[in-house]
């Protein structure tokens, strides 16, 4: 009999890719989300459109033991969504409710291993003020001081899944994702993140003109291609690692460098026009020492490889929308 997996948030960017990967691995997959995926037909064997804030729905979809459960559902977006402050109450309420429901319903079905996707946004803002030298080592998390309510909720939910491990002997696993990108994610509409937003702007611009960049563009980040994120995700859930680990890239670039990389891929010469906008921390990079130690693996694909694939897909969307 094939193994079974439950993907919560299957209609989202990472969840959609995860369903496809698990199908390739031979799993029977149930996906759940508020909506169908906007950019792909789901490959899930069973797909439920439902609201995971509702305990009855969560009990209905966790109606049996699954070999693997991935809890990716969250109310989230890029800087334009999580750093403006306008969505704070929804972000905290919606995501915490989902996680409370899922942790409890999984335990009631004797499901031991839930994967939970936390975020680098839970790291203290004061360790990320130097763009050349941010500290995102896992043990720098406390004393806690995330710069967004999104980060605080992630921290709460990490602790929730680990509290179940301590009190009920479950083996829930937690990763702290750092800026995951790739095709078939949000690229317009306000929830898109920097790589997708930059790809869209470059695809829409004529060579010799300019694109807008929020802030001075000297803030640093690293970006991880979605396939490597899933490799880390499945490896972590199947491991005996009992502490949260970063899943991210260590190739740190400024947002200006990111914009130049995408312009080069597109073969366009574009100036950068810096405008005010929500920014987040000044610098952030993944620290992969712990994941290497715990899993004997860490991402290593160059950023440009993933950007090429992502730009090609977003350029297609831009042209399709314009047609
Ligand atoms: P996404 O927004 O594309 O996917 C999240 C999905 O959750 C969406 O499809 C949404 O409809 C669904 N959802 C929200 N509320 C729901 C509800 N009440 N009931 C059912 N479904 C609901 O985001 P993503 O980029 O795929 O991220 C997946 C997970 O990884 C999230 O938990 C996110 O916080 C975390 N994460 C992502 C990144 C990144 O760079 N993409 C970085 C750090 C952490």
Note the topology.
Elements: E1 4-8, H1 13-24, E2 28-33, E3 46-49, H2 55-61, E4 68-71, H3 79-82, H4 88-108, E5 114-119, H5 149-168, E6 173-177, E7 180-181, H6 194-204, E8 210-214, E9 220-221, E10 224-225, H7 226-237, E11 245-247, E12 253-254, H8 255-266, E13 271-275, H9 289-295, H10 303-322
Helix pairs in contact: 1-7, 4-5, 6-8, 6-10, 8-10
The structure holds nicotinamide-adenine-dinucleotide.
Structure description:
The chain has 323 residues and is α/β, with parallel strands linked by helices. The protein has 2 domains: 200 residues, NAD(P)-binding Rossmann-like Domain (Rossmann fold, 3-Layer(aba) Sandwich), CATH 3.40.50.720; 92 residues, UDP-galactose 4-epimerase, domain 1 (Alpha-Beta Complex), CATH 3.90.25. Helix content is 39%, strand content 16%. A 7-stranded parallel β-sheet has the order 3-2-1-4-5-6-11, sandwiched between helices. Strands 7-10 form a two-stranded parallel sheet. The termini are far apart. It binds nicotinamide-adenine-dinucleotide. The site of nicotinamide-adenine-dinucleotide has 25 residues, from helix 1, helix 4 and strand 5.
């Amino acid at each position: 009999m094939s193994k079974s997996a439950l993907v919560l948030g299957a209609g989202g960017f990472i969840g959609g890719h995860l369903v496809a990967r698990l199908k390739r691995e031979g799993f029977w997959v149930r996906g759940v989300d508020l909506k169908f995926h906007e950019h792909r037909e789901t490959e899930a064997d069973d797909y439920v459109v439902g609201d995971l804030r509702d305990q009855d729905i969560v009990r209905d979809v966790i109606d049996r033991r699954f070999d693997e459960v991935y809890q990716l559902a969250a109310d989230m977006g890029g800087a334009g969504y999580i750093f403006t402050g306008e969505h704070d109450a929804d972000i905290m309420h919606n995501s915490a409710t989902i996680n409370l429901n899922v942790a409890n319903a999984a335990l009631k079905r004797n499901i031991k291993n839930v994967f939970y996707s936390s975020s680098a946004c839970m790291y203290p803002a004061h360790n990320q003020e130097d763009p050349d030298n941010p500290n995102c080592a896992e043990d720098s998390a406390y004393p806690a001081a995330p710069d967004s309510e999104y980060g605080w909720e992630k921290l709460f939910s990490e602790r929730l899944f680990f509290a179940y491990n301590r009190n009920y002997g479950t083996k829930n696993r937690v990763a702290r994702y750092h800026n995951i990108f790739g095709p078939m994610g949000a690229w317009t509409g306000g929830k898109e993140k920097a790589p997708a937003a930059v790809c869209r702007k470059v695809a829409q611009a004529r060579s010799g003109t300019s694109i807008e960049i929020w802030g001075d563009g000297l803030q640093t980040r690293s970006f991880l291609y979605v396939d490597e994120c899933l490799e880390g995700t499945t490896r972590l859930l199947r491991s005996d690692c009992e502490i949260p680990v970063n899943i991210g890239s260590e190739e740190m670039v400024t947002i200006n460098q990111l914009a130049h990389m995408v312009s080069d891929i597109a073969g366009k010469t574009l100036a950068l026009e810096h405008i005010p906008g929500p920014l987040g921390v000044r610098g952030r990079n993944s620290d992969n020492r712990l994941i290497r130690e715990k899993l004997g693996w860490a991402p290593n694909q160059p950023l440009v490889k993933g950007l090429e694939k992502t730009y090609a897909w977003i350029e297609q969307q831009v042209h399709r929308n314009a047609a």
